[in-house]
Specification:
Structural class: alpha/beta
CATH architecture of one domain: Alpha-Beta Complex
Number of helices: 26
Shape: elongated
CATH class of one domain: Alpha Beta
CATH topology of one domain: Isoleucyl-tRNA Synthetase, domain 2
Largest sheet: 10 strands, mixed
Oligomer: single chain
CATH superfamily of one domain: Valyl/Leucyl/Isoleucyl-tRNA synthetase, editing domain
Distance between the termini: 28 Å
Mean pLDDT: 92
Low-confidence stretches: 1-8
Helix content: 25-40%
Radius of gyration: 38 Å
Number of strands: 33
């Protein structure tokens, strides 16, 4: 799209008509220079107190609250942070410009493992032991570390153009926050849902703490395996099994010392076989009588090196009822003399292994549940649940003969002990997906320890209430409902305790004599009040127990619990210390995070709020995907494919990053890299060029020029109709929080409807018509509306560019575009019949311009303005003059026929030196012999 004619407008007498052409004039540069321009706009907004002015302006409006899910304050921002905060900012700004009071309070998660692990790394680098540091000193270092990165991240978020109440941000480590968090724990304590119990949890031996499911990632891992023999001591339903060996297979040999039972499938068919011959090196001896699932017999024989065997009998799993076996370590270190009872387990299959599962109740959820159910039904035959493994992953005294050995190095000692006892049938290795700690990247284990839980199905009915709340929540995309619903339906009780130092303690007391947790509202209130003024450090003071228990209780009679609460509980309770205390509505309108938060923040927030208030803390949930490189790979420093938002802003500017987010389908995984960013920069240039062209052609626009819609040409009224369509699209996106496709649609409007069509047609009128002509004034009236609408619609996305384009027109003293609302467009602009009519006009134009281009290539003319066309149409649509404008030819003649037909020829006449149209009238004027009549009138005017 050319801004102006590229040759002088002068006649044969040397007259210069250039000053009579209304060429675009604007100080809005084509070169954006965003890396330098954006910080200046940020400084302008800060100096003007823009956020506070917006809040003052919004008083009395309906509130809108997108409650911020807190990122961890433990390092610089990555591209996922940028995606998340930009999407939030667009939705907040759009809500504000739609007429609400969109007060956004950003926040940070500052406690727990992510921070503590970083501080511990500094100790390890200095070869110091963190456990030797006084707890209050260590907590102070964690607080300082979190405060440092909170400040860095805050500055980086603001550099992205994210608007919010940064001066009054929230943080989980603020004293007021810590006070509310412990108060929320107290709510569960007082309503009876909080209890202490023994249950296997995901445990990190490296970090020495329980982990939440959201802190786990699955990675490839090579595990040692073994087949173990359990000698059948008795089998009431099938006596001939006595003396045979039941075979199990496990990928966790380290759990063998914790074995206390076996599980079988009642519906599975099993085989009793006699070993005839074995291969060299086999551990199984000829003559052995073994029991495995019939379907898995060939696989087992191959793995155990059994060359030939005799099938003695097949039988159903029900024949194991009442059977008991000897543990495979019986006699080792003079211990393991217990019986391993055989229990029916409906989860046992014959898909892999041997069809019989070894049960270590301390090291598996299903194992634990099976044993607990047995103990409840048969207290006379109770199965113990030993604590064989300590916090650091080494065996305790309850694993005789293996004390002090780390479980991940235990397979060789276990192999050796079982070989000596004759109970090792085979050993091997398996490469499989295994849970690892998200932080340390080290394998984790299941370990039964005393932990604090929130009951899902007690009298509080948190599970059912949560499922009901999910059904009433609006999800974007809707598939999120099923994801979180399935997780809540199947999850166990919520383990909220962690064995760490940096966080809010589970500030409760347990009576030593009875083991009962103390439920005393006055004690809890003293704790809450102290935390409000002193922070959670008050719990770690030497006199804390006496202070909080009060004079009526002896602190020696109580255990002061030192576990801290799970950080997911903390972040899940942010609604309690962010929304009501700041007079923000509860529940929040929207929670927005990555799709992984169905098992993280969305779920913990739901359970916490339902458990304390009976309702969800949100009305809607929006999820976005993750960021991958251009090839669809996960970003990794080792692969060298990381795109850092800081680098993007330094090279391109934040608006390019924001455009990338909003040009993507954020419900899916997004891709980014050098080529994609260059594409976004090119798309940005087209949008910027549109704004620049508008500004150039609006120079000097005055209200007196404005033309009523009814008096405008059809073309202008069609543009106004298109604005109403886009207005509806944007308002729906703001209402539904679904911006997928909106920015591409705006870009297409600018590139196709405006630059390639409307601007291309109307630049002749804008440059060459008389200043007061109806056509020119109509076009400028429409350009005014285009500028106002595009600046407003782009403001939530291109926050810096929209502001620059706004101020470039209205001056540095003008009110910011971000203080405006979306324009309210008159209903009479919408004209569906007109729109349908112009669909056909544009179709015909496309056919004609293609033909004109063919003639130009063939050398008939160099410019379409040298052409005259004869156009036959099925019906009368526009005048010949209007068709000439639309087709950008100098002359047009119309005819009627059943089909569109076209005749193209060189236009007769001479070229007007001012507008370049070829017309017979050029030369008719003695005063201006090189001008057409229109240009002569414009010049004389």
């Amino acid at each position: 799209m050319n801004d102006a004619p590229d040759s002088p407008a002068s006649d044969q007498k040397g007259r210069d008509y250039r000053k009579t052409v209304f060429l675009p004039q604007t100080g809005f540069p084509m070169k954006a220079d965003l890396p330098n321009r954006e910080p200046k706009l940020l400084a302008r907004w800060a100096a003007a107190g823009s956020w506070n002015r917006l809040r003052e302006k919004s008083q009395g409006r309906p509130p809108f609250v997108l409650h911020d899910g807190p990122p961890y304050a433990n390092g610089p921002l990555h591209i996922g942070h940028a995606l998340n905060k930009i999407l939030k900012d667009v939705i907040n700004r759009a809500a504000q410009m739609s007429g609400t009071d969109a007060n956004y309070v950003p926040g940070w998660d500052c406690h727990g493992l992510p921070i503590e692990w970083k501080v511990e790394e500094e100790y390890r680098a200095k070869k110091l032991d963190k456990d030797q540091v006084p707890v209050l000193e260590f907590r102070a270092e964690c607080r300082a570390y979190a405060a440092k990165w909170l400040a860095v991240q805050s500055e980086e978020f603001q550099r992205l153009g994210v608007a919010g109440d940064w001066a009054n941000r929230y943080a989980t480590m603020d004293f007021a926050s810590e006070s509310v968090i412990v108060e929320e724990i107290g709510r569960f304590l007082m309503n009876g849902s909080l209890y202490r119990g023994l249950r296997p949890v995901m445990w990190s031996p490296v970090e020495k703490t329980a982990l939440a499911e959201a802190e786990i990632e699955y990675m490839d891992h090579v595990s040692p395996t073994l087949h173990a023999l359990f000698r059948v001591l008795r089998a009431p339903a099938m006596p001939e099994l006595a003396g045979s060996d039941v075979v199990i297979w496990t990928t966790t040999p380290w759990t063998i010392p914790g074995n206390r039972a076996l599980a079988y499938g009642p519906e599975i068919q099993y085989a009793l076989l006699h070993v005839d011959h074995v291969n060299e090196g086999a551990l199984v001896k000829p003559g052995a009588r073994l029991v495995v699932a019939l379907a898995l017999l060939p696989q087992f024989c191959a793995e155990a090196g059994i060359a030939t065997h005799t099938l003695i009998k097949t039988f159903p799993g029900t024949a194991f009822a009442g059977a008991a076996c000897a543990a495979p370590l019986r006699g080792h270190a003079g211990a393991y003399g217990h019986e391993a009872l055989m229990l029916a387990g409906d989860y046992v299959t014959d898909d892999a292994g041997t069809g019989i599962v070894h049960i270590a109740p301390s090291h598996g959820e299903e194992d634990f549940a099976l044993v607990v159910a047995h103990n409840r039904a048969h207290p006379e035959a109770r199965i113990e649940i030993p604590e064989c493994v300590g916090d650091d992953g080494t065996y305790t005294l309850q694993a005789p003969g293996f004390e002090g050995i780390h479980v991940f190095r235990a397979h060789e000692p276990v192999y050796a002990a079982m070989t000596a006892l004759g109970t090792l049938a085979a050993k091997g290795k398996l490469n499989h997906s295994y849970p690892h700690s998200w932080r340390s990247k080290k394998p984790v284990i299941y370990r039964a320890t005393p932990q604090w839980f929130i009951a899902m199905d007690d009298g509080n009915q948190i599970r059912q209430k949560s499922l009901d709340a999910i059904a009433a929540t609006h999800f974007v995309p809707d598939i999120g409902r099923n994801r979180i619903g399935a997780m809540v339906a199947g999850r166990p009780d919520w383990c909220i305790s962690r064995q760490r130092a940096w966080g809010v303690p589970i500030a409760v007391f347990v009576e030593k004599r009875t083991g009962e947790v103390l439920r005393d509202a006055s004690v809890m209130q003293r704790i809450v009040d102290a935390f409000r003024t002193e922070g959670a450090d008050a719990w770690y003071q030497p006199d804390a127990a006496a202070r909080f228990l009060g004079n009526e209780r002896n602190p020696d009679d109580y255990e002061q619990v030192m576990d801290i609460v799970d950080v997911w509980f903390e972040s899940g309770s942010t609604h309690a210390f962010v929304l009501p205390p700041r007079n923000l509505p509860f529940p929040a309108d929207l929670y927005l995070e990555g799709s992984d938060q169905h098992r993280g923040w969305f779920q913990s927030s739901l359970l916490e709020s339902v458990g304390t208030r009976g309702v969800a803390p949100f009305k809607a949930i929006l999820t976005h995907g993750f960021v991958l490189d251009e090839s669809g790979r996960k970003m990794s420093k080792s692969l060298g494919n990381v795109t850092a938002p800081q680098e993007v802003m330094t090279k391109y500017g934040a608006d390019i990053l924001r455009l990338w987010v909003m040009n993507s389908d954020t419900a899916e995984d997004l891709r980014i890299g050098k080529n994609i960013l260059e594409q976004q920069a090119e798309l940005y240039r087209r949008l910027r060029n549109t704004l620049r062209w508008l500004l150039g052609n609006l120079a000097g626009f005055e209200e007196s020029e404005r033309v009523p819609v009814a008096e405008m040409p059809e073309l202008e009224r069609w543009v106004l109709h298109r604005l109403t369509e886009l207005d509806g699209r944007i308002r729906k996106a703001a209402k539904d929080y679904d911006w997928n496709g909106v920015v591409p649609e705006i870009h297409a409007f600018c590139a196709t409807d405006l630059s390639a069509f409307y601007f291309d047609i109307r630049k002749d009128s804008l440059y060459c018509d008389a200043k007061d002509s109806l056509r020119r004034r109509s076009a400028r009236t429409v350009l005014d509306q285009l500028h106002r609408c595009l600046c407003a619609w782009l403001a939530p996305v291109l926050v810096f560019t929209a502001e620059e384009a706004w101020l470039s027109r209205f001056g540095e003293e003008a009110l910011s575009i971000h203080q405006q609302d979306f324009p309210t467009l008159p209903a009479e602009w919408r004209d569906e019949a007109l729109a349908a009519r112009w669909v056909e006009i544009r179709r015909i134009r496309k056919l004609v311009t293609a033909s004109l281009e063919d003639h130009r290539r063939d050398g008939l003319f160099g410019s379409s303005l040298q052409a005259r066309i004869g156009l036959t149409l099925p019906g009368q649509t526009l005048s010949a003059e209007e068709w000439a404008e639309i087709l950008i030819v100098s002359q047009a003649e119309l005819g009627q026929g059943e089909e569109v037909a076209l005749d193209v020829a060189l236009a007769p006449g001479a070229k007007c030196e001012r507008c370049w149209r070829v017309l017979p009238e050029v030369g008719a004027s003695a005063a201006h012999p090189t001008l057409c009549l229109r240009c002569e009138a414009a010049v004389e005017g």
